Amino acid sequence: MGLLRRKDLLGLKELSAEEIKLILETALPFKDIFSRQVKKVPTLRGKSVFTLFYEPSTRTRTSFELAGKMLSADVSSLSVATSSVVKGESLEDTGKTLDAMGADVIVIRHTAAGSPYLLAKTVKASVINAGDGTHEHPTQGLLDLFTMKEKKGKIEGLKVTLVGDITHSRVAKSNIWGLTKLGAEVTVVGPPTLIPPGIEAMGAKVCYDLKEGLAEADVVNVLRIQLERQKKGLFPSLREYSELYGLTKERMAWAKDDVLIMHPGPMNRGLEISLEAATSSQAVIEEQVTNGVAIRMALLYLLTGGGKTDELID
């Protein structure tokens, strides 16, 4: 068992505030590696990391693979489309195969909520949830927390507004769990059809008016409108959604002057966020991507027990 004192990272709901803080603190020296001429440390030499993605991904998959390689781990990517999964192999059997190959960490993204939990019970390797259905996306939640703390100097007391498709967003759930555990105030904003009933039980306030939801916000995290879900008629039209809930440079003025603008990507520019808002001086969307690698390096290190901590800065 690694330095995190748990075998797997399956969701932020299960983590304590202390564990979240440990991950954020551990990511700091890893981010410093980006400023080096040689962006590599020997910390996880001899460790094996497998990525197992049942859903498309650019940022998360590449981020994990880069994180593993920068730590000198052996990284293998299993393409589900060309694996025995297409022949009907179960998730459990795929996991056992990777275990037999000596996997130390398996990073999984799956369409079905709960799949990482099933895999974690099956394998000896540490399992990291890279997104399961509409349930959670814990590493995105952690990199968002890291970015907020880096830019605002704290999490406790921050007023954070999440805008968009809360119902289908696993990013929103992880953000809410992580932020509330660390003492932030969270407001979710969107049309009633895109806000799940009972979300207040997670500690979030609900608002259906963008101007009201942005008032006094320190951070605005704009979520992707999941176009693949909109065949269900969850709002009248994309144009109407954009007019009511799209974040523009002008609407940023409804929040605090130093409001931080974030987006997990990929963005539907011109729909949930305008080009001007996404590229404004207050936006940190590209830095979120960099921070994502640092967070994932920290998790690989913590879950495997890594090498010596002084290797991070030597």
Q: What would CATH call the architecture of the largest domain?
A: 3-Layer(aba) Sandwich
Beta fraction = 5-15%
Q: For this structure, what is the CATH homologous superfamily of the largest domain?
A: Aspartate/ornithine carbamoyltransferase
CATH class of the largest domain: Alpha Beta
Sheet with most strands? 5 strands, parallel
Q: Overall mean pLDDT score? A: 92
**What is the CATH third-level topology name of the largest domain?**
Rossmann fold
End-to-end distance: 25 Å
Q: Looking across the biggest beta sheet, what order are the strands in?
A: 7-6-5-8-9
Helical percent range? 25-40%
User: How many β-strands, per DSSP?
Assistant: 9
How would you describe what is shown here?
The chain contains 10 helices and 9 strands. The model has no long low-confidence stretch (mean pLDDT 92). The strands form 2 sheets. Strands 7-6-5-8-9 form a 5-stranded parallel β-sheet. Strands 2-1-3-4 form a 4-stranded parallel β-sheet, sandwiched between helices. With 314 residues, it is α/β, with parallel strands linked by helices. Strand 8 (219-222), helix 8 and strand 9 (260-262) form a beta-alpha-beta unit. Helices cover 35% and strands 15% of the residues.
